[in-house]
Amino acid sequence: MSDHPTPLPPPALRFGYGTNGLTDLRLDDALGLLADLGYHGVGLTLDHMHLDPLAPGLAARTGKVAARLAELGLGVTVETGARYVLDPRRKHGPSLLDPEPEGRAARAGLLTTAVRVAADLGAHAVHCFSGTLPADTTAETAWRRLGDSLAPVLTAADTAGVPLAVEPEPGHLLATLADFHHLRSLLGDPGPGLLGLTLDIGHCQCLEPESPADCVRAAAPWLRHVQIEDMRRGVHEHLPFGDGEIDFPPVLDALAATGYRGLTVVELPRHSHAGPQLARTSLAFLRTLTDPSGPAPAPAVTTSVKGAPAP
């Protein structure tokens, strides 16, 4: 008998789908769809159509969503990328870098609210991003604003026991993995249990110098949330699997090898018109790569108005 036990295999990946790609569905219907298809969880974007973070009765509404998630057995990450939730005229505005202190405070307030919602939902992280560099603002000033704006959010996250997961976003001040580490340094390295990373696999293909699989390995100690979709080099366009350039088997192998236990969420925010179908085909694609001998893909999903055929 060997003195060395056989190493355990890496844990299986847990797949989710983002509600920002299901905006044509009511939230309750979207959650039911994902559970029926066999997803492990959901990336829940707080927005006016899905658990509006600014409408009255948030605590009670959050409680109902928490009960629904528990009923369906779905895990959750809270995402904060709603385009116009704070300002109906400025996409993703105001940001943590806004020239006006009131604007920065509004964004920090939204993130603090997201932390409370995440705690009530039992979410494993709150996703966020920096925002773009405002006109007539130096990078030095913007980084200072970012650190100052995140300070109260990190305090709330520490109290709630829910880590932030900052996403490097093409075109933003914090655009790359190197930028994430710069923020960590500015904040005195709060540690991955408090300030972690959202790694978007498509963004790695878009602009990182290393391959997406190498990005996964480099980011492993800080991973708190993962988003996945196809993409082409130099073009920030989220694409269904197979429509871009990413070689996914090495990416998924690298992700499994890290021992990451959060959700890997399909991120197709501009494809809501085909959300139910893409949710089905995306999970079938990922299952084929991670467990070719596993269960057959879920049946096709059709939606219709009661009493009328599906279009």
Automatic annotation (TrEMBL):
Residues 290-311 are annotated as: Disordered. GO terms for molecular function: isomerase activity. The keyword Isomerase applies. Pfam families: AP_endonuc_2. Keywords: Isomerase. Transmembrane segments: none annotated. Residues 33-288 form the Xylose isomerase-like TIM barrel domain. It comes from the Bacteria. The keyword Isomerase applies. This is Sugar phosphate isomerase/epimerase.
